[in-house]
Amino acid sequence: MNKLIIKHNELTAEEFILLWEAVGWGPGPSLEQTRLAMEHTLFRVSVFDGDQIVGMARVIGDMGLDYYIKDVIVRPEYQKRGIGRMLINEILQFINDHGVEGTDIFVELCAMPDKIPFYGKFGFSANEAQRLRLFYRVEKQNDSGEA
Ligand SMILES: CC(C)(COP(=O)(O)OP(=O)(O)OC[C@H]1O[C@@H](n2cnc3c(N)ncnc32)[C@H](O)[C@@H]1OP(=O)(O)O)[C@@H](O)C(=O)NCCC(=O)NCCS
């Protein structure tokens, strides 16, 4: 492994989809959706070993009250080497740099049960709230008003 390089806000949609598929999350989202998502993400962090992307994470939010960590992924063959910790530390540093001094800010994420101990290392804990979700199908109306 070469010296790892951390990059800020350079993660591309193509790299995002590559890592998504590398950890077996199924076929990645479409390029169009992912490009929009990258564009509107508050902070993207990626880690490289030479030319190869080996980890990524991003945070979305409103900068004032809420930050939400998404898509923390380390390439399988690079896991358990401290890269996940690097990614979360970079995000917490970003929040500290941009949050209002002296205030408390919610930093949230959604984790599968087997990943909770990883996030616990940074102080995250589960509350009693359940994650609700809806896969919403976007349908545009045509000029005649028909769906
Ligand atoms: C979760 C994930 C990002 C962790 O990345 P990683 O690079 O392996 O983590 P690190 O090596 O930086 O581990 C940091 C610490 O967490 C611990 N840790 C990592 N994964 C853990 C797990 N699943 N359960 C318990 N502890 C874990 C490590 O032992 C290490 O502890 P230490 O610092 O006390 O030695 C990685 O396993 C991954 O990408 N998984 C697949 C994608 C995924 O599920 N992402 C999370 C979405 S919720």
Structure write-up:
The protein is an alpha+beta fold. It has one domain: Aminopeptidase, CATH 3.40.630.30. Helices cover 27% and strands 23% of the residues. The chain contains four helices and five strands. The chain has a five-stranded mixed beta sheet, sandwiched between helices. The longest helix has 16 residues, at 83-98. The structure holds coenzyme A. Coenzyme A binds at residues 23, 72-74, 79-85, 111-112, 114-115, 117-118, 121.
SSE order and pairing:
Blueprint: E1 4-8, H1 13-22, H2 31-39, E2 43-49, E3 52-61, E4 66-74, H3 83-98, E5 106-108, H4 116-120
Parallel strand pairs: 4-5
Antiparallel strand pairs: 1-2, 2-3, 3-4
Helix pairs in contact: 1-2
Bound molecules: coenzyme A.
Coenzyme A (COA) binds near residues 79, 82, 85 and 111.
Structural class: alpha+beta
List the secondary-structure elements in sequence, H or E.
EHHEEEHEH
Q: What is the number of E strands?
A: 5
**Approximate strand percentage:** 15-25%
> Largest beta sheet, briefly?
5 strands, mixed
The unique ligands bound to this protein are: coenzyme A
Low-confidence stretches: none
Note the total helix count.
4
